[in-house]
Amino acid sequence: MMGRSHLIIGTGVSLSVLQFTGLPVTAPAVTVALIGSLLPDIDEPNSLLVSKALPNSLIRLLQTILLPTAVFVYFYVQSQPWNLLLAILIGMVSFLPSRSLRKVLMFAIGLGLVFYGHAFAPWNWIAGSLLMLCTTLTHRGLTHTVYGTTVWAGLLYTTTAQLQPEIWIAGGTAYAMHLLADSLTNRGIRPLPPLKWRIRANLMSTGTKHGAVVENVCIVLTLILAWIAFSPLFL
């Protein structure tokens, strides 16, 4: 399912759940719902979430910086032959396609969070470790499982449940809705690896005309649910 559809469905359903249960729809809850609705696709560098967080303009800027950096390392780092090897490595990275460069950036950001992020927030080392792990995963792998959902919801629960329970409920629901939506596709998901059991409804294939129809139906149903949940506020 396309990122736009995941965003609308996951956010719409999770905020409706908050409204039905009487929990406040706060700005942090909305933000976490938006992130959670797209987060399972963090294992795909060209997904909506990753491409917005690391846009093409940033990738082009990185490519522009890397070549001069390689030249600088070769001529000014006095550590032969390691300066040559490092310069070649940096130069090779600069010619990687945008998909691969996004993975390199994700890994670098994760590494930074592991080594330096804990000084700002204790959970940053976990976030950094997970971010580095995601660069090694195949699409619809570990992030599209019960384990991924549990980790995400668990992190939110342990940090927000006491003061703002709506945050972990919104984020966890949005994440779970992403998996449910992907289970409608021909490929489906494997919720409990290494078990080969797969959930798939075979209703659509992402990117096809029939798939677009199914996605639009799901979006309309989400909007109807949201209208039922929030219409009393306007009556």
From TrEMBL:
Keywords: Membrane, Transmembrane, Transmembrane helix
InterPro entries found in the cross-reference section: YdjM-like
A Pfam family that the UniProt record links to this protein: YdjM
Regions crossing the membrane: 57-77, 82-98, 104-123, 213-234
Signal sequence coordinates: none
Claim: Glycosyltransferase is one of the keywords in the record: no
Keyword Aminoacyl-tRNA synthetase on entry: no
Protein name, as recorded: Inner membrane protein
Species the sequence originates in: Paenibacillus tundrae
